[in-house]
Specification:
49% of the residues lie in helices and 15% in strands. The chain has 677 residues and is an alpha+beta fold. A hairpin with a 7-residue loop joins strand 7 and strand 8. The radius of gyration is 29 Å and the shape is elongated.
């Protein structure tokens, strides 16, 4: 086979896999839209944390502006810090130095850049491992390209990074970078052992430093791996030049460790832990305080290992339903095993259920590595593999459970799957074409399963994280794709839902006064998708005079009032009265037929309701949600009651409540429910 054919097969293999991965990742990141500055929720909360950190670094310090991080802030010595590492913030500085136009809008671009690095380093690692195992002089055949291309597509599209992409905020952005940098470290560890030159060593140390400044546990793991290679060579396991290289690697790995320790010490006074007792969330949440008390002031330790093992590797860590999206997370949040007292937990999928092919292939690489460990050619794979396994240690001993944390397991899955994929491709060179076809088909099906499952749960997660239009869009899509299925999920009642429901349950209040969806989580249980606007019509006598009358009382706590003020010049205005300063609408002329419509329109995505009038226009906003004692977000009933109508009539004001426009998605769901009742 010619060198040209080899290049063609390598190029075709990469092109197809990279195209699949890019389409999947970009689609999930943009939530199948064209919004490049999309955030996980309309308020942009937690999608702007690294921007705050970048601005602080530009001012020469690590602490951020008070209140900017909300419940995630750590208050230490009168200053507030974020616990995430500064590397993603450093990348923003060139943009933020020139403009403030993109503050809070860079998360999608950052995650796309991280994915580009992940795809690049995974692809390079695949070919490097292939050439290590088979020899660089062995050309790539069409069979081998088909197998390796499918394995590469699995690694690029079938991991929990695809799910993470559905929510572009700091919690997922940090994993996008951590996984990409960890794979880069794995590649350069292999490369340094094969070709220990200055530039390969420099790249390894650069990736080590970037990772330790992004996610400390993963950074520590790869730094220790770099030190291990250096110690092996410096101890005399190689020639004199390798001893010198070993000393450089030891120094570089320790320097990177020191940088991570220095940053954490500067913020929290500890080499690697952060003081949870000083977090704002701890001050608000009683359960967090109980968890810290039960675990000696931390939520990290071996007592959580069994819970982590069963949560992240349970066989039933997925839920199949007969309605869109067909695949969801388990019905209940992760629960503690044994005597472990865990902090927070969410409905958490397992690696076994969502990434079965990756897990099988990663585990299959271990026997082969052990069997060939004496061969110098494959010995170079051991430290990278062990380093990636060590990365998983942080979440396995952490008493907080969410599917995004499986990002710490992804590097080990990818490296192990790459090794097995290379071996499988070599074995399939010597079998019949039908066996190759069957094998590639099975790999493709496994890739499609993991990719599709992550896209589906990601689409649901994006909707459940953003009440309002995004959630209504999700429900409308569900009704379009699986018509009739929602009828089984729907209940109708005169009031809002009062008890927990099954995951994905739908509740219609009244005749579409409001539409709710049950998340199945311990927090943010019933989400508000739509709420009917409230409209009140005030008719004034032609000879009205100056007055100030409460027209509407909004049933919130504390209560708000909507006043109608008139003057002796034939004008009126609407005033939204808070417990603080009131919001004043503009004065407007009241012309025949002397009618004023006052409306209260809830915007669940913002958590506020807008008050306005016609004529008159915008008046102001009033909060439409509150926090319970357990700090669970819940909608506030906007029950509009009209003040004493007789008294108003004496002032020449006649008030009549009207029904607002029926929310469209709720109307469809209620109609479907009525048709199947």
């Amino acid at each position: 086979m010619t060198a040209g054919s080899d290049r063609v097969h390598r190029t075709a293999t990469c092109a197809v896999a990279l195209l699949v991965g890019a389409v999947v990742q970009v689609g999930a990141l943009l939530n199948w839209s064209t919004d490049l500055d999309r955030t996980a929720n309309p308020l942009g909360y937690a999608s702007n944390f690294f921007d705050f950190q970048a601005r602080a670094l530009m001012d020469g310090h690590l602490w951020v502006a008070p209140g900017s991080l909300g419940i995630e802030a750590f208050q230490v010595d009168g200053r507030e810090y974020m616990y995430f590492g500064p590397f993603p913030a450093l990348l923003r500085i060139p943009v933020l130095w020139t403009t403030s136009e993109f503050d809070g809008r860079l998360t999608v671009v950052s995650m796309l850049l991280a994915y580009a690095i992940f795809a690049t380093m995974t692809t390079r690692l695949l070919w490097l491992v292939r050439d290590v195992v088979r020899g660089s002089g062995e050309p790539v055949t069409g069979r081998e390209g088909a197998v390796l291309g499918t394995v590469l597509a699995l690694c690029l599209a079938g991991t929990s990074l695809t799910y993470n992409a559905s929510l572009p905020w700091v919690y997922h952005e940090v994993y996008a970078w951590a996984v990409a940098l960890a794979l880069g470290c794995a590649y350069w560890m292999v490369r340094v052992q094969i070709d220990p030159r200055r530039w390969t060593i420099g790249w390894l140390i650069a990736f080590d430093l970037a990772l330790v400044l992004t996610r400390t546990p993963g950074g520590f793991a790869v730094c220790l791996g770099t030190v291990a290679i250096g110690v092996w060579w410096a101890s005399g396991r190689g020639t004199r030049p390798l001893r010198r290289v070993g000393a450089v690697l030891v120094a570089g790995g320790l320097a990177c460790l020191g940088a991570g320790v220095a940053v954490n010490m500067a913020k929290f006074g500890h080499p690697f832990l952060f003081p949870l007792e000083d977090q704002v969330w701890t001050q608000l949440n009683e359960h967090r305080r109980e968890a810290l008390a039960a675990n000696g002031g931390t939520i990290t330790g071996p007592q959580f290992f069994t819970t982590g093992l069963l949560t992240y590797f349970r066989l039933d860590g997925i839920r199949f339903v007969d309605y869109f999206p067909w695949v969801t997370f388990p019905a209940e949040p992760a629960r503690a095993v044994g005597s472990a007292f865990i902090d927070q937990s969410y409905r958490t999928g397992s690696v076994t259920a969502f990434m079965p092919l990756l897990l099988i292939m990663a585990l299959a690489s271990v026997p082969w590595l052990m069997r060939t460990s004496a061969k110098p050619r494959t010995l170079v794979l051991w430290v990278p593999v062990l380093s990636m396994v060590l990365v998983t240690g942080a979440i396995m001993n952490y008493g907080y459970y969410a599917y995004r944390y499986t990002g710490d397991i992804v590097p080990a899955l990818v490296v192990g799957s790459v090794v097995t994929g290379v071996l499988l491709a070599r074995v399939l060179q010597r079998v019949r074409a039908s066996v190759v076809t069957a094998s590639v088909t099975l790999l493709a099906l496994g890739t499609a399963y993991s990719t599709g499952a992550h896209l589906l749960v990601g689409f649901q997660a994006a909707a459940f994280t953003s009440p309002g239009p995004a959630l209504a869009r999700y429900l409308a899509t569900q009704e379009d794709i699986s018509p009739g299925a929602q009828a089984r999920l729907t209940t109708v009642g005169q009031g809002p839902p009062s008890e927990r429901g099954a995951p994905d349950a739908i509740h219609v209040q009244g005749s579409c006064d409001a539409l709710y969806v049950e998340t199945g989580e311990d927090a943010d249980r019933w989400l508000l998708a739509e709420r009917r606007s409230v409209v009140v019509t005030a008719r004034l006598d032609p000879d009205f005079t100056a007055s100030s009358s409460i027209i509407v009382t909004i049933g919130t706590e504390p209560r708000r009032w909507i006043r109608l003020q008139t003057n002796d010049d034939g004008q009126a205005r609407v005033v939204l009265q808070h417990e603080e300063d009131p919001w004043y609408g503009p004065w407007f002329d009241v012309l025949p037929p002397y009618e004023i419509r006052i409306g209260v329109r809830d915007l669940p995505e913002w958590g506020y309701a807008e008050v306005g009038s016609n004529p008159g226009g915008y008046v102001g906003f009033t909060r439409s949600f509150s926090w319970s004692e357990d700090w669970v977000r819940q909608p506030i009933p906007i029950e509009v009651t009209v003040d004493d109508t007789a008294d108003l009539a004496e002032r020449g004001i006649h008030v009549e409540p009207e029904a607002g426009v029926t929310p469209p998605t709720c109307r469809r769901i209620l109609g479907d429910y009525s048709a199947h009742e």
